[in-house]
Amino acid sequence: MQVKSRHHLRSDEVSEVEQRLAESLGVDLDADTYELVELEESEFDVVLVDGDPAVLYYEDEPFLTVRGANQYPPQTHVVTVDAGAVSFVSDGADVMRPGIVEADDSIEAGDLVAIAEESHGKVLAVGRAKTSGDDMVGDEGKVVESVHHVGDDLYEFSV
Question: Considering the entire predicted model, what is its pTM?
Answer without folding.
Answer: 0.94
